[in-house]
Amino acid sequence: MNMNLYGHAGQWLMVDCGLSFDEPLTPGVEGAVNHEVVAPDPKFITDNLDLLAGLIITHAHEDHIGAVEDLWPRLKCPIYTTPYTAAVLRRKLGYTHFADKVRIIEARDGEQLTIGEFAVTWIRLTHSLPDPYGLLIETPAARVVHTGDWKIDRDPVIGAPIDARALQRLAEQPIDALVGDSTNALKPGWSVSEAECFDGLLAATQKAAGRVVVGCFSSNIARLVTLARVAQRTRRRLAVFGRSLERHVATARAFGLWPEELELITHRDVGYLPPEEVMVVATGCQGEPRAALSRLANDSHPQLALDKGDTVILSAMVIPGNEAYVQALVQKFHGRGIAVIQKDDTELPIHASGHPNQEELKQMYSWLQPAMVIPTHGEAAHLQKHAEIAREVGVRRTLTGRNGDLFRIAPIPSIRRAAVYTGRIPIAR
């Protein structure tokens, strides 16, 4: 549920506006009721709307973009993002009554735009979807790099790898702070490259005698392209089940990201094929009850019924908090004689994280040489470990805190604890 605010000279710049699923409004409170969709409470900035210069969306994952369609009527500010993410956003806004009122300004790789008191430059990175960007945010007071979600992927399947020289050029002028992703800070070494998933998914598919159903995140176009190549190699026909998958594939086609030689069939045709010729990619890899995978597990999907001997591959990590839902999904498949393969069940990788492990964090700091690191995006243990890694490689100062803390970057770094109210609000859909 990313929502960040940068303040300078009486203005605020919002970075990302995301949501989460099936969570309580008060985490950690026993007996708290879970809500299907939850967003950050934007009360602080909506009480100060005349100070909001704009909203930047770094990439198209739901925890960064998902709340725009619900919260924009409260924000009513221009939105800045890159072309692919803008296309995803326009599709989402197309279901609202105010789509024509939202001003979306597109930025290109390396382009600098002035947004109120802030000069913002877009920094191309790699992540688990197309068009992920970090930001260089400059004011007369400080230069700050906001990474968003990223990893160092030297073979990302879709898009170009990280440009190390471009990052090093950013450091030719001092970077006062890096505000960065801590999701994998507890994991040593380097993350797996997206391209490495091909061999693992191919091996798992070749062992399957019946239908193969794969659960993965619908925004991961690189994984979908890999699965299409696996289907082609194993003489299976590929279909996608779920509206979010259909939307993301359509967007990828529109941007020329889907190889023309990789064919998809419609979900209506799958039921007519012999089981050994079927591969389906389905939504719901986190056990979401209304998604395609759950309907397949419950034998209630209108287009396809699975049989004993079919195989389900979960090509995704289990997001913390979703363990019980995923386990319930797995048990339903097992109860029907359907094999389930998860990422820890194979020697070869069938999933690649989109976030940096410890060696990637160190590499980023060697390129950017920030004077200070502010870890974000993780639980307390992730933030503390991220800060420890930064200090180990020579970063002079780190600041860690909680939602609602105000981090003063310049002129004198400090933290004002619980400076503003933060909370969660339920979203009705």
Question: What can be said about this structure in brief?
Answer:
With 429 residues, the chain is of the alpha/beta class. The protein has twelve helices and 22 strands.
Structural overview:
The protein has 429 residues and is α/β, with parallel strands linked by helices. It folds into two domains: 4-190 and 354-426, Ribonuclease Z/Hydroxyacylglutathione hydrolase-like (Metallo-beta-lactamase, Chain A, 4-Layer Sandwich); 194-345, Rossmann fold. It has helices at 43-46, 62-65, 68-75, 83-93, 164-170, 197-207, 221-233, 243-254, 292-297, 323-335, 358-368, 380-392, and strands spanning 4-8, 11-15, 20-24, 34-40, 52-56, 79-81, 104-106, 112-115, 118-124, 133-138, 143-146, 177-181, 212-215, 237-241, 278-282, 311-314, 339-341, 372-376, 397-398, 406-408, 414-416, 424-426. Strand 1 and strand 2 (11-15) form a beta hairpin.
**What is the helix content?**
25-40%
CATH topology of the largest domain: Metallo-beta-lactamase, Chain A
CATH architecture of the largest domain: 4-Layer Sandwich
Classified in CATH, the superfamily of the largest domain is: Ribonuclease Z/Hydroxyacylglutathione hydrolase-like
- The stretches of 5 or more residues where confidence is low (pLDDT under 50) are none
Number of domains: 2
Instruction: Profile the largest sheet.
Output: 7 strands, mixed
Q: Helix segment count?
A: 12
Assign the CATH class of the largest domain. Answer: Alpha Beta
Strand count: 22
| Order of adjacent strands in the largest pleated sheet | 8-9-10-11-12-18-19
In whole angstroms, how far apart are the ends? 17 Å
Radius of gyration: 22 Å
